[in-house]
User: Fold this.
Amino acid sequence: MREKMNASRRELLQRAALVGAGGFGRLAGAAGVTRSGLALRSAVVAGVASSALAAGGPARSQEAPTRGIRGRPAPEIELDYWIDGAGEATRFSVADSRGKWVFLKCFQNWCPGCHKSGFPTLKAFADAFHEHPDVAIAGIQTVFEGHSVNTREAVRELALRYDLPNVMGHDPGDPKTHQPPQTMQRYRTGGTPWLILIEPGGTVVFDGFNVDKNRLIDYVGEQLA
Assistant:
């Protein structure tokens, strides 16, 4: 299976190289690349990651087609609540993380799937890459329901419960107007748990409800080698 996956990656990377100079993972900075060529190579990068990570989980065709922004530039996330692994106030920026692999995990405190698969994936990924200088990791509570349970205080409680060293944020939406949280709107998430992987050039290469955490770790590790 790994040989087939690697062969598929090589084929896609060869196709990306035919579009123009610039290289995998540095799409935005490639000189002399047309808009259509850049879009194609972003799609190829997303295709490589999707094929490497999604096996064992639901195919994209099984998800709502209007969800996610795979293959598109990753939007900024502007929140007023970020804490670090020690629970101290900090900041996090997608734009400032350009040049790094970025892993985002959207959750809600009362979400059963978050506790069953989302947090274990985040914990495993953080344990593998938290100290790596070319990786940025953030968990974000994207509250679109249950505002009395999915609280700001719960963010720190969950970080302690799962012994998470990474940055955590709270994106509460508006319970009065039922306005969804900004992360949910900008990344067109399908709910929680929602997982997002952004390559160093700023393109979302994977998003969805499920990912094989071992393949995720192996894939990012291969790119960093």
